[in-house]
Amino acid sequence: MGEEYKAKVFKSGNSLALRLPRTLGLSDGEEVMVVPHDDGSFSFWKQDRSRDILMGLYGSMSAGFMADGRGDISQEGRDWSDNGGATEAA
Q1: Would residue 52 count as lying in a domain?
Q2: Total structural domains within the chain
């Protein structure tokens, strides 16, 4: 884990704002993605790095990840021979 920083939340108009240290390398007006987690923690990154973050997740799951399916949806086999009524473009 990298260096830890302390930030302060304050009221700005009718919103809350988070004051972050300049040493994080953010610029005034720069947009960031903020993701809340179930445990009350947050992750954030520069919006222009969103693709890099997503691609970094690719391959990070264990080989057995979802080996038993999702468990929350039906896993019946599907007949892919029917094109669902779609017609080919002329």
Answers
A1: yes
A2: 1
CB of 23 closer than 8 Å to CB of 14 = no
Phi (first) and psi of residue 53, to 5 degrees: -65, -45
Per the CB < 8 A criterion, the answer to whether 46 and 52 are in contact is no
Q: Mind listing the pLDDT tens digit for each residue in 38-77? A: 898 888 877 766 666 666 666 666 777 777 776 677 667 7
pTM: 0.43
User: Are the CB atoms for 43 and 32 separated by under 8 Å?
Assistant: no
pLDDT at 51 (0 to 100): 66
Q: Are 48 and 41 in contact (CB under 8 A)?
A: no
- For residue 47, the enclosing domain spans 8-56
> How far is C-alpha 6 from the chain's CA centre?
23
Would 63 be classed as within a structural domain? no
